[in-house]
């Protein structure tokens, strides 16, 4: 009888420890809309990759919930005040005298890779070697090339000798660490590194991971499973196993949530605001729904090598022809602000003073096209004197219901002024991993940038950030924007420590951006997180560092 009672208690406990989907609460299944093109921390910029990596990988520094730099792998941020940072006379690449900085970091004693190897200065040195090589194809190559030297004091302590004392100097920014003891052979041929890296060829190797979890299973295009990292010395994460499932069709994502196939939808790459609002009305009693406005900029990258789009009059006509305020009201209940530049009003450097705007004005749009030599043909589409048809390709991530709806709305607006739109969409891992990163899109590419606070647009707007075959497609200036004044402003802003003066430079950047329109602004997004009622500790930041950077704080509650 005692045995029967014990069995009954255990069975009851098992029921209490299961989710609505029947899964053990020792497991958590997360739905996202994209599958990463790679898991290497230094190759390709993709939100889905950042989300997954943050569960299993830690950086030296990131930005926290207070939008300020914080240590992940280090013990203290260097500042001039605490003596860990020291300015020195330096030179810009053109020989101009500037101020450099020596800044000293100490790595945590309890930082280990998943195979038990300590995270050391060797990993910092190797990452620098990979990042600064011109053939590696790292998106943020300047973060490494601006490091003049790394002085090693011990296996855990090092000094970065940086060419520039910039306003973000306490942070390591986009500088990553790599497990040198595993990755060095993959770097024997730098141009082939992106294909030979173990993050691509052997991603379940425990030694690649230094976070609370490690990658345990990879099904390309489907899901990534993660298990607890036995070498993680921080707070123990709540879940024995995580599964991050890529469901690129957002309608299917919602259906999987309701069926219990997934437990939650990540806000960073999940349902759009309109879908989340509708979902909450129908099912809000069964889920937590969190809305987080943030530094998320939905836009259209313009292929400036396309002669049609290289004409500023055409770009301005495209923007005047669409009613972005109406799109926000009808699709997003007015909760997503129309953008006039890439800087979100939540960021202190945002300004509207002197920034050109492009309100809905189809008559002005038609006049601009006429001025540019585009005459309306009998079929309602414009032609020029070279017998070119005014036809523009518009691409985005396949399966994202809201983006596909926005595409249709844009195409309808543009049709009214004589522009034909060709819609061609691709899976996210192809769209970001190949088409956008290698500048293969022929016209317009719709996607979002998720940035850190006061994030300087060096990789996206500076001419040195244009991906080419020569630099192995490094950089994020996918439009091919080349503007000497923008380069000057970015260079000047980076080294300006005076907040007031830097604010004026930021204002000039925004005015120039809105004048030249290398990108067509759409709106600033809000993320919507759909969580089970039994999950606590998921805290959105409102910037590019995802909730999974604090996944060890997530907890199950009854």
Which descriptors apply to this entry?
five-stranded mixed beta sheet; 18 helices; 20 strands; alpha+beta; Dipeptide-binding Protein, domain 3; disordered N terminus; 558 residues
Largest sheet strand order = 8-9-10-1-11
Q: What is CATH's topology name of the domain at 295-526?
A: Dipeptide-binding Protein, domain 3
CATH class of the domain at 295-526: Alpha Beta
Rg measurement, Å: 25 Å
Are there runs of 5+ residues with pLDDT below 50, and where? 1-23
Count every helix, treating DSSP H or I runs of 4 or more residues as helices.
18
Number of beta-strand segments = 20
The biggest beta sheet reads:
5 strands, mixed
Which structural class do you get from the secondary structure elements?
alpha+beta
The quaternary structure here is: single chain
Q: What fraction strand? A: 15-25%
Superfamily at the CATH H level of the domain at 295-526? Dipeptide-binding Protein, Domain 3
From the coordinates shown, what is the CATH architecture of the domain at 295-526?
A: Roll
Task: Tell me what the structure shows.
This protein is of the alpha+beta class. It has a domain of 232 residues: Dipeptide-binding Protein, domain 3 (Roll), CATH 3.10.105. The chain is built from 18 helices and 20 strands. A five-stranded mixed beta sheet has the order 8-9-10-1-11, with helices on both faces. Strand 4 and strand 5 form a beta hairpin. The protein is globular. The two termini are 30 Å apart. The N terminus is likely disordered.
